Amino acid sequence: MKKHGFLAILLFAFGMLTAQSYQQKENGVKINVQSMDVEVQFYSPSIARIFKAPENLNPRKESLSVIKSPEKVDLKIEKSGDVVIIRSEKMTAGLNLITGKVSFSDSKNNPLFTEKDYGAQFTPFNDAGNKTYSVRQAYLLDKDEAIYGLGQQQVDNLNQRNTSHFMRQRALLASVPIIQSTKGYGMFWDNYSPTTYTDNPQEMSFNSEVGECIDYYFMYGGNADGVIAQIRDLTGHSPMFPLWTFGFWQSRERYKSQWETMEVVDKYRELGVPLDGIIQDWQYWGPNTNWNSMNFDNPEFPEPQKMIDHVHKNNAKIMISIWASFGPDTKQYKELKEIDGLLEFTTWPESALQTWPPDLTKLSGVRVYDAYNEKARDIYWNHLNKGLFSKGIDAWWTDSTEPDHLNVQEKDFDIPTAMGTYRSVVNAFPLMTNSGIYERQRALSSDKRVYLLTRCAFAGQQRYGANTWSGDVMSTWSAFKKQIPTGLNFSLTGIPYWNTDIGGFFHWEYAGEATNKAYHELYTRWFQYGTFLPMQRSHGSSVKKEIYNLGKKGDWVYDSQEKYINLRYSLLPYLYSTGWQVSKNSSSFLRALFMDFNDDKKVHTISNQYMFGKAFLVTPVTEPMYVFSKENNWRNPYEDFSKIGKQEVYLPNGTKWIDFWTGETHNGGKTIVKDVPIDIIPLYVRAGSIVPFGPKVQYSTEKKWDNLEIRVYSGANGEFVLYEDEFDNYNYENGAYSEIPFSWNDSDGTLTIGARKGSFNGMLKNRKFTVKRVNGNSKTVTYKGKEIKVKI
Predict the structure, then answer these.
(1) Which residues are CB-neighbours of 643 under 8 A, at least 6 positions away?
(2) E strand map for 475-626
């Protein structure tokens, strides 16, 4: 008995010794605990990768999203009791030798983020015959901590605490497993299979269906901008978009002939309403069996080059719809079939006939291509280049990049791709298909910036020139209201370009939509909101939403649109300069209020307001105020403009706010009630903002910016950098651009226009600025690239 007792003590001690040992690696520490290998590897002083796998499995995973290689990081590693402590200059990681728990604190030892003890789970899973695991990791959050992100989930609330999301790419949903906290950290769960995010009072967790390892990245930025900077450092930076993408874009499902497409551009020019782009939606290729041929095979487009040239002659750009699937009559389908480059599940359109509802007695045979296959992406681009890019198409509407998956069955996810089962990589589909276009167009030409309008996204997609839209949303006030927190949470995953169909896509609640006043009110308010998004784009089905189809000059639905289109164009210097801050300094267009006012805890749960860039506080009106119906029957509405509508607006603490429309100044930290006539969206400018306003134009490059109005919103010091380049090529990557810094000293009323930095072909060497102090004086000065001071 004594021998057995001694042996048991010896084995226990040996087990404890084994559990409490660790292996120091070049950029971190690795241990074996609880039949699991755990490694903490620093990629930078602010980014750490946490990698866990069943012992001795040694999975070799290459991330599809992460492009950063680990830096050489100066680390201090020591053992304190049962914990290995790994310190960088920015943060500290703790690795528990008994439980395998990983935790993080800042450089002052303030706790940031922690796993749950024994919170890692590996559950055996049969993935189409491959013995692997489902993986889960649980975490503990502070009670009052707010969490944001997760991509585009179409929910009412910005804060993602006490929620659960099944994250698999689907129409309307873009699953991006990145979160960030009001405590100044972010986390990327690097897994591409269907994943469930859950937060409740007991724990937060990520649970993925397939994975040989738990693999996530912790990022500490100190604040939201810092976190986004770490996300972009890890997964890629956003390139500059062309200036013309920031103008107004008109679309419809769909323009059914080349003459119809040309007519829209002509009509806008005739009316003098600014327009930069027209979008040609689907079926220009003809029948469904010829789906996405990337050719104008529809007889209603007999001279596509004439159409494209006509649009360009009218100083507009043309974008065209392309899909991630092909009909059996296309050359792409046949070439893809030869390399096993098609995914055999049901997709849209199911029927070979273009009827509604679909006639399923005659199937289309359309199939999604294997975007994970390098050769398949080559085939895709080769036909896209030959059929469309070579003709002068300017931009791509990459539709159905989830992709569409109908009649979903579990066996569909067993289908093999070039990178494993479809189940194991499904969420990365939009990343792979958009990357295929971006990389190949860039390899072919640097004269035209790549621009993709896409329906889905995954982590890292910002590096591929993609602007995600929120899908075919309903034309309802409730759907409209959801767009605000949806866009903000999406942006908080580090992907800065997002937009929505102005007015919604499906209009089933309204009769005679083009003349229905109830719909006009919804469209007008949505249009005002769309003015303050990275892309201003009108689109939808059944309703012809061109400004002249909804009304005429003098009608409120027409006049409000014209007003906000003109406002959008006056803001182009501000928008383009903000785009530069996005590319150069990892800034964001769509800014949840906590990003700038995190100390004001009231903003943590505000879901219907946001900052657009650093200057504008936007509060969209998301309920009807002037057109009503009996018993919510929107088919028979009536107008009532006898009373002015009211909108509550919370002005964040810590600054003063200036009403954009009236110039009235308000203190922050309070809720005010704003009158909102049909043509007014509550819009406030942060004190200290410097905003450049451009000339009145019909398209973005019509006039030079040779006399910009520089508005100073006094009440605090402020800075702004005016950015300019050649507007549509990649020469800026080689230094062909200029920056002009502006600095406002509020105490003495002086605006310093600093020395210009850089140059480019066509740059204005001499110009005028009209400096206007809002509610004050103005002065016009000549600027020749040297510093000048303007006292106003």
Answers:
(1) none
(2) 498-499, 536-538, 590-591, 610-612, 616-618
Marked catalytic residue, from 300, 472, 659, 719 = 472
Give the Cα separation of 725 and 53 in Å (integer). 48
Cis peptide before 635 (omega within 30 of 0): no
Residue 187 tokens, joined? 């986390």
Whether residue 714 contacts residue 773, with contact meaning beta carbons closer than 8 Å, is answered with: yes
Pairwise CA distance, residues 544 & 525, whole Å: 17
Contact assessment for residue 668 and residue 652, using Cβ atoms and an 8 Å cutoff: yes
pLDDT tens digits for 318-354? Answer: 999 999 999 999 999 999 999 999 999 999 999 999 9
Q: What are phi and psi of 22, to 5 degrees?
A: -150, 160
Tell me, yes or no, if 472 is annotated catalytic: yes
- Contact by Cβ (8 Å): 596, 567: no
Distances (CA, A) of 161 to 102, 145, 172, 180: 21, 8, 21, 11
Instruction: Kindly report, residue by residue over 37-74, the tens digit of the pLDDT.
Output: 999 999 999 999 999 999 999 998 999 999 999 999 99
CB atoms within 10 A of CB 101: 23
What residues does 407 pair with on adjacent strands?
A: none
What gap in Å lies between CA 152 and CA 138, rounded to an integer?
A: 22
Place of tokens 């791709």: 417
- The predicted-structure confidence for 642-684, as pLDDT tens digits, reads as follows 999 999 999 999 999 999 999 999 999 999 999 999 999 999 9
| Nearest partner of 518 among 623, 642, 645, 643, judged by Cα | 623
The residue written with tokens 């104008």 in the block is 296
pLDDT bin (cut points 50, 70, 90) of residue 632 is low
Rounded CA-CA distance 601/594 in Å is 8
Q: Determine contact, residues 494/527, Cβ cutoff 8 Å.
A: no
List the domains of the chain with CATH numbers: 2-183+185-220 (2.60.40.1760), 245-595 (3.20.20.80), 704-791 (2.60.40.1180)
Among this protein's residues, is 501 annotated catalytic? no
Per the residue annotation, which of 399, 513, 521, 596 is the catalytic one? 399
How far is residue 507's CA from residue 521's CA, in Å, rounded to a whole number? 13
Which of the following is catalytic: 190, 212, 335, 402?
402
Radius of gyration in angstroms for the set of CA atoms belonging to the chain, rounded to a whole number: 28
Burial 234-246 (b: 16+ CB within 10 A, else e): bbbbbbbbbbbbb
Q: In this structure, which amino acid lies at residue 738? A: S
Q: Is 399 a catalytic residue?
A: yes
